[in-house]
Amino acid sequence: MKSNYILLFVFALLILNSCKTNLLSTSSTSFFSDEELKLIYEQDSSQAMRVWKITNKEDSIFLRKTSQEVAFNPTDTTIHYFVHRLFKTVRNPNSLGVGIAAPQVGINKRIIWVKRFDKVKEEMPFEVYINPKIIKYSDEVKETMEGCLSIPDRREKVIRPDKITIEYQTLDGKLHQEIIDGFTSVIFQHEIDHLDGILYLDHLKNE
Ligand SMILES: [Zn+2]
């Protein structure tokens, strides 16, 4: 009888120990999928990634997917490596833009870069946002000319709400809320659309 208790105790210890290892391994491994990790680490962090385009069938299917929320640990080196490569992509002369979303380089995660035209005093910096979402839209709309790195050789006028309230996380994991208007608001709406598989073409009346 006594030896049964001892066995049970050892068994319980073993279970506890395996739980601990599992917890450790999930917090130290990245939330990116194996396929995504392959794309991210394919090249040096200073290198741009390939921009996925609607003119390629496989790319266009991927661009229509909804991206996953990012449950990240600010100390995770992979997210820093990836956002750096995503930045290099939007600043690359071959794919120069004012904003980019992770799915545009084949990464199914809610991460975007936006050029802050509204931060004139800070010389309009590019900033990265994790899990950005629009929580409020203004009734006033306006028309702006838009183009997209994933839609080659096209530019069209798109009507969108003028002012938005957004919520997002920064790379340190902190949650922020901000009211954005003007052209920067257009970029935010365009990039956040990408995270839901929406392209600016979907906002055109005749498309
Ligand atoms: Zn776009």
Shape: globular
Task: Specify the biggest β-sheet.
Answer: 5 strands, antiparallel
The CATH architecture classification is: Alpha-Beta Complex
Number of E-state strands:
7
When the domains are counted, the total is 1
CATH superfamily: Peptide deformylase
Name the average pLDDT: 89
Radius of gyration: 21 Å
Number of helices: 5
Order of helices and strands: HHHHEEEEEEEH
Instruction: Please identify the top-level CATH class.
Output: Alpha Beta
Chemical compounds bound to the protein: zinc ion
Please report which band the strand proportion falls in: under 5%, 5-15%, 15-25%, 25-35%, 35-45% or over 45%. 15-25%
The end-to-end span amounts to: 77 Å
Relative helix content: 25-40%
- How are strands sequenced across the largest beta sheet? 1-2-3-6-7
Structural class: alpha+beta
Low-confidence stretches: 13-28
CATH topology: Peptide Deformylase
